[in-house]
Amino acid sequence: MTNEDQYTHDEVLKIGEFELRSRLLVGTGKYASFEETRTALEITGTDMVTVAIRRVNMDPSKGESLLDYIDRDRYHILPNTAGCFDVESAVRTARLARELLDTPLVKLEVLGDPKTLLPDPIGTLEATKTLVDEGFTVMVYCSDDPRMGVRLAELGAAAVMPAGSPIGSGQGVLNPNAIRIMMELVDVPVLVDAGVGTASDVALCMELGAEGVLLNTAIAGAREPLRMAAAMRDACRAGRNAYLAGRIPKKLYANASSPEEGLIEEAGPAPK
Amino acid sequence: MNETAHIQVHVNGEVTEVPAGSTVADLVASRDLKPQQVAVELNRSIVPRAKHSDTTLGAGDRVEIVTMVGGG
Hints:
The complex is a heterodimer. By secondary structure, chain A is of the alpha/beta class. Chain A has helices spanning 34-44, 87-101, 121-133, 146-155, 176-185, 199-208, 217-220, 225-245, and strands at residues 13-15, 18-20, 24-27, 48-55, 76-79, 105-108, 137-142, 159-162, 191-193, 212-215. Chain A has a single domain, classed as Aldolase class I (TIM Barrel, Alpha-Beta Barrel), CATH 3.20.20.70. Helix content of chain A is 35%, strand content 16%. In chain A, strands 5-4-3-10-9 form a five-stranded parallel β-sheet. In chain A, strands 6-7-8 form a three-stranded parallel β-sheet. In chain A, helix 1 packs parallel to helix 8 (225-245), helix 4 runs parallel beside helix 5 and helix 6 runs parallel beside helix 8 (225-245). Chain A is elongated, with a radius of gyration of 22 Å. The termini of chain A are far apart. Chain B has one helix and five strands.
């Protein structure tokens, strides 16, 4: 019997000190329940899950915590600074996350405005520098400008994570060439973060050579989130294997896959 | 003994009265929060969990108490 694993072996993805077998990073927002969150994470096979840091609910009626539903022996938790529109808030949020979760990991977001949620480049650079200096393992959400990726890597980012398209937009990867160029120029892992709408978007990212994909809404917002979780897992593996296998070049004309010799007699005038 | 004096502090943006001499640990406990499930910032500096019990709140202090929620 063929052991498929020997043909589909892959390296682990190293981000700072952390090692990931799955290249799909999954968010925990917008699910119908903590139970559904937990099941979706399991199905995706992810090793790293993102969470947000927020003020506690001051109502004493508060219920369960997401912390009770995420097995920390199984997943690396990647706290984000989502919702921060200035350097100081992002840095403070990262410090609170480290205190809360005892992890150096942070997914840095310094956003420009609430409508587009596009990353603010200058604030992102400043906050990256501060957090790297403070010993964080900084995974930086950024635009798909290749030079931005270079600058972030130079500052010590552990990974750069260009947006495929705006957060939660489901538009997929709008500029695959920019992301390809960034991957060529940057010597830390490049993961596509944001914009994924469906499985083919994930496959495309991985086929381009991205080291991973981070998504949330595309699963949580699907009509059947748990089925979509499976689709995303499969797409990530499919795209990665296709990248490693090396696609054929595109050609203008046909190239027969069946032998051109040994064909039977061509149709002509019927024999007498 | 007089009635316990109270001071005003800001907790997560809301003005709150706490007994004078309250510590961060007292504040966390008064909200029925589990210390392992929160992180606390006092006047924009982290108060490590190990220091909750010996960090006393002062009038006008600004406290943030956060936890982890779903997010991408």
